[in-house]
Amino acid sequence: MGGSSTSEKRLQGMIALITGGSAGIGESTARLFCRQGAKVVIADIQDELGEAVCRDIGPSAMFVHCDVTQENDVENAVNKVMINHGKLDIMFNNAGTIEYGYTSITDVSVSEFERVMSLNVTGVLLGTKYAARVMVPVRQGTIINTASVASIIAGVTGYGYSSSKHAVLGITKNAAMELGMVGVRVNCVSPSVVATNLSKIGFKINDTEELEEMFASKAVLKGVKLNVEDVAESVLFLASKESRYINGHNLVIDGGLVQTNSLVSPHTYTCN
């Protein structure tokens, strides 16, 4: 019978560029990609942290300083991948930020709104732009963007973050339509809140278990708490050949949170 060996690594021989790869979801994904046979370039503004992660991973990872709001930095990161590896198979546009507190529309700070939009939206746009420039000529590659459950539901976060993640979904779908015509896939992941250092700051909750429990309690799926490894595994699926016919998809990782009907009592359904 045909088929690949069960011991075959899912990203063997692939080259990935991960923005925001020094911590959180990006770091977890970088480590997982390398375990699955890829070589990874971590692009981040946190130089010391990023270089430390690469040293810990070993020769399969390297670091490049990159502020994703700066076009020259993003172009340089992609150029560094091409110089060192000669190709780019996977672009994971993961770098992002949160708002520091929720504000009513009557009190929204334009400067804070623009800061969040610049990092979360411009960074994805530029990453997609320069990844496409090297993927289109070879008619293959996959681009994955980090969105959020805030891309499809309201009231979870403030105006800047919610708007930015809706925009990430829009960029993903537009790029999927255009680039899919030449064999390049574009998808995004939309996790619920993950207890990273960034989300702890945003929700003003320092305790990891408390933050995990707060959102786990709102999801339909019980007995599981979302962590960075869960998101990394979803990104791996979209990066691998297992998802080769998936394009323009928003993979929601939320335990059924966005499907929950608040009018339905948890006792409505019983399992025997």
Automatic annotation (TrEMBL):
Entry annotated with the keyword Iron: no
Pfam families xref list: adh_short_C2 (PF13561)
Keyword Ribosomal protein: no
Keywords on record: Oxidoreductase
GO molecular function annotations of the record: oxidoreductase activity
Residues forming coiled coils: none
The family this protein is said to belong to: Belongs to the short-chain dehydrogenases/reductases (SDR) family.
The protein's name in its UniProt record: Short-chain dehydrogenase reductase 2
